[in-house]
Structures are given as structure tokens and as C-alpha cells.
Amino acid sequence: MSGNQHPKTEAGRNSPSMSAEDLARAFYDMVLIRRFEERAGQLYGMGLIGGFCHLYIGQEAVVVGLQMELKQGDKIITSYRDHGQMLAAGMDPRGVMAELTGREGGYSRGKGGSMHMFSSEKHFYGGHGIVGAQVSLGIGLAFANKYRGTDEVSLAYFGEGASSQGQVYESFNLAALHKLPCVFVLENNHYGMGTSVERSSASKELWRNGEPWGIPGRKVDGMDVEAVREAAREAITHCRQGKGPFLLEMATYRYRGHSMSDPAKYRPRSEVDEMRKNHDPIDRVRKELLGMGVDEAELKAMEDKVRAVVTDAADFAQTSPEPDPSELWTDVLVEG
Ligand SMILES: Cc1ncc(C[n+]2csc(CCOP(=O)(O)OP(=O)(O)O)c2C)c(N)n1
Ligand SMILES: [Mg+2]
């Protein structure tokens, strides 16, 4: 298994492996997700966002590193913890934020909310609230790639909690049987709601969960965007070459609660603080860029730009009108 051939991945890679230009791009994209999510949290607190809302803060390096290896036409599908994927795919922060506030300018015209947004233009297929369901849909997307004779790949993101769902294994079987170009991205943030992975999974090496079907796997430090990108290259190349699926276990961490209501009693505050202080993916890249001689002012300029983008998105999300009541009758039925 290729996981055994990469003993360095969890312990750390030879750094830096990206150019300053690429690192700066990753920095910008991660800061955008972080600030967007912080603002969404504020709007939620102000009562402007209703329903479920799951923030991606802490996990930014996973999606940004993977996205850097994708090309036009590659497809992405994920769970309800989906804002980071949307922004990394290049969806408009205005449309995403306005969907959160339930406004007309949102991606689903205010009718889907946090968990139900799509963009066929950016090949983003949601946003799914049923734990594990997106994995089966993800291999469907991969099947379409193959059926159409393209070399496009599909990324199916899911959590370590979802990784114990039966349909994930059915998907592994079909994907391996038909050699579907699907990268299974298992985001191990160590908790499924309030249950730690130690308490929910008998398998302790999740990257090996595809072994019975011959699916190669690799464990990756998901707090390190460069390590993520390196692993993404290997997995995506494997899929593009028609060799079938690949499983990446991303060791990551969410700083905030599972959703906006979370008792936070299942882990000590010190554990969260330790991750924030010593393993933050944005701090890591900031240090690397400064070490490469990039000016502090350049980083500040990028952060200012992000702030402006997020403020603009939040303003739009509060001024875009609420959907007209007649919208209740649109997009609910597709006539055959
Ligand atoms: C089929 C199904 N079972 C249970 C739930 C309730 N539920 C919502 S999120 C969640 C935890 C999933 O954890 P994980 O897969 O680790 O993803 P994370 O939230 O950490 O990103 C559960 C059990 C659900 N939405 N769907
Ligand atoms: Mg989890």
C-alpha cells in the first residue's frame, strides 16, 4: 500500500515544497475561507442566518491544497461542512453568503441555505446533509467522467464519522470494480458531532479502509497545505491515468463546534488551543513565506483584500432582497 511508502507524510515533509508564488496563493485562499467563516459565525449570532451552519475553520489547508491540483472540469462533492469547498472552487463569496442569509442573490435563490448550494459552472455538486450520501453520488460523478471518455476526476469529501457508514463501502467496491476516477478525501477532524474517532471507528488506520478492494491510500498532515498538495498530485494522477480510485486520509481539526449549537463538552479547551497555537495551517504558511523573504506588508495587503471581499459579501447578503413568496413554487419539480 502506498501509505507505507510515505512514512514522512504525517511526520512532516521536506519544506518548503511550493514556490513563494503558490504559497502566497494558498495563503490568500486559506485566509479567505477563515475570514468568511468567521463572518458567517457573526451573522449567525446576529440572527441573520437560520437553520444549520457548519464552519470549516481549522480545515482550510485540506481543500486549498487539493484544489491546487485540479483542472477545469474536475468535479467536487462534499457534506454539509461545505463553505470552504465552494470558495476554493471559485464560487462567488457574495452568492454563498447571501444563500446563508436566505436571500434572492444566493446560489439557490435563498431556498437552500448553508447545506444546499450548487454551481454547475464551477463543477461543485453540493452540499449534502445526509452523512455519507455524497460519497455514493461522488462515484456517480466519477462514472460520468469515465463514461464520457474524459480524464476528469471527481473528489468526494467526507468525514471520519461518515467513513463508518455502509454506503461508503459500497461506493469503494463499485469505484474499484469499475476503476472510477474518484479521489475519496476522508477529512479526519477527529470528531463526528460529539464523538471522537477513537470511540466510533474500530479501524485505527482509516487510510487503509479501502484495502479489501485494492484501493491505495495515504495518510496526510491536513494542517500542512504543501503536504496536502503533494498527496493530491499523487492521488489525482493515479485517477487520471485510469488506475481507479484513491483514498486520502487528511488528519485535520475543526476549531469550532460541530454546528452553531454545540455543547463543547466532549473535548478539553486545551486541546483546541494546542492545535490553534502549534498547528494552524495559516500560521504555518505565513512563517514559511516570511522565511522565504516575502515582506510582511505583502501579507498584510492580501489580508486587507480578503477583508474587503468578505465585507462586500456580508453587505450583499444583508441587502439582497428576500425571495418573493412565488419562489415557493419554483425549482421544486422537474417535469419529465
Ligand atoms: C445518515 C445520517 N445519520 C446521522 C446524521 C446526523 N449527523 C449529522 S453530522 C454527523 C457527524 C458526522 O461527522 P463526520 O463525518 O466526522 O463529519 P464532520 O462533521 O466532522 O465534518 C451526524 C451523525 C445525518 N445527518 N445523517
Ligand atoms: Mg469529523
From TrEMBL:
Coiled-coil stretches noted in the UniProt entry, renumbered to this chain: none
Molecular-function annotations in GO: pyruvate dehydrogenase (acetyl-transferring) activity
Spans annotated as Disordered: 315-336
InterPro entries tied to this protein: DH_E1, PDH_E1_Alpha_Subunit, Pyrv_DH_E1_asu_subgrp-y, THDP-binding
SUPFAM superfamilies given in the database record: Thiamin diphosphate-binding fold (THDP-binding) (SSF52518)
Names of the cofactor(s): thiamine diphosphate
UniProt entry keywords in alphabetical sequence: Oxidoreductase, Pyruvate, Thiamine pyrophosphate
Any matching Pfam family: E1_dh
Top-level division of the source organism's lineage: Bacteria
Record-listed E.C. numbers: 1.2.4.1
Residues passing through the membrane, by range: none
Complexes and interactors: Heterodimer of an alpha and a beta chain.
Name recorded for this polypeptide: Pyruvate dehydrogenase E1 component subunit alpha
